[in-house]
Amino acid sequence: MENKITIREAVKENDTRLFWEQLHTYYKRDMFPDPNAEERDYFLGDEYRNTMQEIRNRPQDRCYYLFFQRNGQDIGFALPVIYTSEDGKCFIMEFCVYPEYRGNGTGRECAKILLNWAVENGALYAELNYGGNDRRLRFWKSVGFVENGVDEWGEPLMILPPKGEVPFTVERLTESTDWQLLKLINGFKKDIGEESFTEEMQKQLQQAIKNGKITFFVAKRGYRAVGMCSVAKCYSTFSCSDTGVYEDFYIEPIFRGKGIARKLAQVAQAWCKENSISSLTVCCAPCDEKMYQALGFDTHLGTTFAHIE
Fold it and tell me: Cα–Cα distance between 59 and 110 in angstroms, integer?
């Protein structure tokens, strides 16, 4: 059919070489037009290409080099990864329509065809990093994506909301270096207007978890971590026992309003009881009081003051 857009995978050596030529052109033209941009050399270098080649060649959770084609002519490309061994996420790493073919809804049509292709290849939903770029933000919103937290490096994410119901579970975190925890931590930091964790902060948090100073509970939708809370222990001379402080309470925006908050609070409260923690308190803004009361924090202990250096 004339003007129909189709997808073809770059499989042969010539196609693979062409894909990387177009990807590098895209990086220099659209992503890093400043020759002195910090990330430019990495994405144009051999290390990044070799990493992507390894992902492309692995037997599962691989990436694909794809071209969009219309009337026998390449008009753009995409670089998606489908995590079939996890929760069916299709992460769109790169997406480009060549400048001469942009306009008249071509980009949106290519995006929809890519999403259909992803479903046919085992994807259950899609996610991407839009780099904080307002133009890309508007474009992906027009396709149906919504903003949803940040990644483990603090870069803003968008998600095409998953279809179908998957049970949510809550478990205590046992791996201090879990990348999904860092992703949630950075989402929480963004929500409260703070900067993402530095590498030094990450190391300090990991050590605190290992030493038992803080315990995290993670809510999951299948494999994907979508929410968290923590309990920090301290000793109280008033009760002559350990007490806990409930904090780091965060749920990814798209998954709010589904009962996850209550499950997190219940698991944290039950864990405190099992571990002889005599009380669990939370410090919150007045606007959040009713929410925490609904989660079982129903004893008012007065006003909290803090001295912060």
Answer: 27
Encode 202-241: b = buried (16+ Cβ within 10 Å), e = exposed: beebbeebeeeebbbbbbbbeebbbbbbbbeeeeeeeeee
Token duo for residue 90: 């299709």
CA 41 to chain CA mean position, Å = 25
pLDDT in tens, 141-178: 999 999 999 999 999 999 998 887 888 999 999 999 99
Q: How many helices (H) and strands (E) does the chain have?
A: 9, 12
Paired with 251 in beta bridges are 227
Q: What is the CA radius of gyration of the chain?
A: 23
Give how far Cα 245 sits from Cα of 176, 225, 236, Å.
19, 22, 12
Sign of CA dihedral 18, 56, 130, 127: positive
Separation between Cα atoms, residue 240 and residue 288, nearest integer Å: 30
Q: Which residues pair with 171 in a beta bridge?
A: 218
CA distances from 105 to 5, 58, 147 (A): 12, 34, 22
Model confidence pLDDT, tens digit, residues 68-81? 999 999 999 999 99
